[in-house]
Amino acid sequence: MLIESNRNPKIKNLVKLLEKSKERKSQKRFIVEGKNENFFALKNGFVPLEFYIQPDIFQNSISLPSSIITYEVSQTVYEKIAYRKMSGGILGVYEYKNYEINQIKLPNNPFILIIEALEKPGNLGAICRSADAFGVDMVVVCEEKADLYNPNVLRSSVGSFFNIPIISTSNQNIYDFVIKKEIPVYATYMNESSISIQNVDFTQSAAVIFGTEHSGISEFWKSKITQNILIPMQGQIDSLNVSNAVAIVCYEVERQKIMFNNL
After folding, report:
1. What angle do CA 233, 237, 243 make, to 5 degrees?
2. Is there a single domain that holds both residue 113 and residue 203?
3. Each residue of 45-96: pLDDT tens digit?
4. Range of the domain at 73
5. Same domain, 87 and 124
6. Do 47 and 159 reside in the same domain of the chain?
């Protein structure tokens, strides 16, 4: 079936899902744009409901489940629903996937990222990309402000969002979890007791919490963390964008584990 009008009810609903968090949450559906992003979503067990392709661009570049209805759209319609014009000519509609924290199978000595009240979707997507690149075992978003399924999260993660378990929960729930698992919690905020990330033994279990872009972690965590850690810096600025800070810490964790495994 070829859809040629932007007034088609299905196209109107796609636009709602793209633009409104309220619609995504009420329908429990979200949009995945791009060839690589849809490939990773399918590979990692996300459930597709329908696909929209622009055939001149898509050209069967990835294999789609034959059981899922696929609509072809005109170039005009595709330009209406696609944020990126060179993303492979495909949008998929998927069901929400809700991970339960106690159902995640963690390895021995897991590394967990805890992201508290993050506000900017692009930062969350970049964090997912670093987490995937450096082998983080689980990302926990607590006191969620940035909608996990915001298109900007998915786009900036370049598909990494689908490759790691990402859980949305409360501060108390993740705190109870790490206490039960006896996982020490580190926080990246400065005080007199802070030590360099290079002096933390990340070959053992660890969870590192990062707070909001403007105020850091909340009071809930400040009395509960095992150790404050810091990223050594030599310039005049004393802080980093949260996604950059996450990438540096993730790299240090992976560096230590590689060195330990090579001993």
Report:
1. 75
2. yes
3. 999 999 999 999 998 889 999 999 999 999 999 999 998 877 899 999 999 9
4. 2-95
5. no
6. no
